[in-house]
Amino acid sequence: MQVKAKLYPKEAARLLREHPGVREAVTGATLHFEEGRKRAYQEIDAEAWRERAKRVKDHLLTHLDHYLELAEKRLQEKGVRVHWAEDPEEAHRILREIVARHGVKRVVKAKSMLTEELGVNPLLESLGVEVYETDLGEYLIQLLGEPPSHIVGPAIHLALPDIQRLFHQRFGTPLDASPEALAAVARKVLREAFLTADLGISGANFLVAETGTLALMENEGNIRLSTSLPRVHVAFVGIEKLLPRFADLALFLPLTARAATGQRLSTYVSLIQGPAKEGEEGPKEVHVVLVDHGRTSLLHDPEAWEVLRCLRCGACLNACPVYRQTGGHPYGYVYSGPIGAVLDPGLLGLEDTYPLPYASTLCGACYEACPVKIPIPKLLLTWRQRAVERGLAPTWEKGAMQAFSKVMQSPSLYRLFSKALRGLPLPQDLLPLLKAWTEGRGPLRPSPKPFHELWQELNKE
């Protein structure tokens, strides 16, 4: 996938200027998810669940080499063909060979952020293969030719009239068609695709090393159909998505559902144990492609590795006041919002993703929502510090910070500037940026005396 993260500020401004309705659509949907998560967390001892999940993932990541070898062994014992892909090019080669060997003409695909990361759809289309995204949200954005805007809700930026216009243009449905009627049209198209596809592609929420079990969560039933009806199933799995034991699913399945959508458990959970045996229904061939693509390097980063605990639940996106303004498209890569701001620099390099660590107010809501306690605010500061050290910060910002440092280290300069600043017009008059902040608040009124004078008077009393 082409990375456009450097354009984040310009793309965010352009989107809000050209599509102002996106803010309302994204804010409404994310607040709905966020309220559901809070209710779901209140039903359990959320702090204890989150701490236990953090420890399990930390143990997994600390012994990742062992669990990867164990997972490969268990998968092969079940008849699964295991592949290793260091980068997208290797993943493409593996998929190309499978497509050629089976003469694949049509693919049904479950929602998977990793396959977005690898650019699977463009590859298949270049091979002349017909690809159907089968998650309804993914199907909508496939029709529009757009990338996902949210990890869990890829079409979260669309309002009902947008979808009505899209289906009217593509399928001739009335412009006022109901959501049920629109869903029925999509269901008819996708049912035909499920029944005629040669290959099904999915990601995996988890891969259990102990048993070689692929665990997939969903609410629409499309993943089960994509992985069970075609004669060949290929699952792309990031190497950090493992769990050590089968029993760990009892914690991670409900915790992920609560964090993502506020559900106690997703509507469907599929546990795939390998290809169908003689007399059974299901794919005759199952492939698991274990993908690195920068994850090993990130694991060796002593400050940034904790982001690999991520479950891709999207809870931090729902909690983020910055993400709500635009949705995910301006972030310029697969992973957006707070997790994208700390994961993308680790996977792609800070030079290609520089503005993203600054796309946050550091309010800490993302940390409170995260089911595995990833310290996102701390990681944002880490990447910002590295940006300054590597000279990526703008010249005006470096000059301003140097001047600020000089003033703060000199009592005489500090007193001079504190007096001078009190005589200037109010900040909201100088900076239009502050207008929205002050619309709901009274004007800023500087103290008639600086703090050091007040302090001296207090000590005299």
Strand residues, percent: 5-15%
| Structure annotation, total helices | 24
Span between termini: 67 Å
Poorly predicted runs are none
Strand count, sense and closure of the main sheet? 6 strands, parallel
- Backbone CA Rg: 25 Å
Number of strand segments: 10
Task: Indicate the multimeric state.
Answer: single chain
Helix content: 40-55%
Order of strands across the biggest sheet?
Answer: 1-10-7-4-2-3
What general outline do the C-alpha atoms trace?
Answer: globular
Helix and strand content put the structural class at: alpha/beta
What average pLDDT do the residues reach?
93
Pfam families: Fer4_8, LUD_dom, LutB_C
Domain 4Fe-4S ferredoxin-type: 301-322
InterPro entries: 4Fe4S_Fe-S-bd, 4Fe4S_Fe_S_CS, FTHF_cligase-like_sf, Helical_ferredxn, LUD_dom, LutB/LldF, LutB_C, NagB/RpiA_transferase-like
Keywords: 4Fe-4S, Electron transport, Iron, Iron-sulfur, Metal-binding, Repeat, Transport
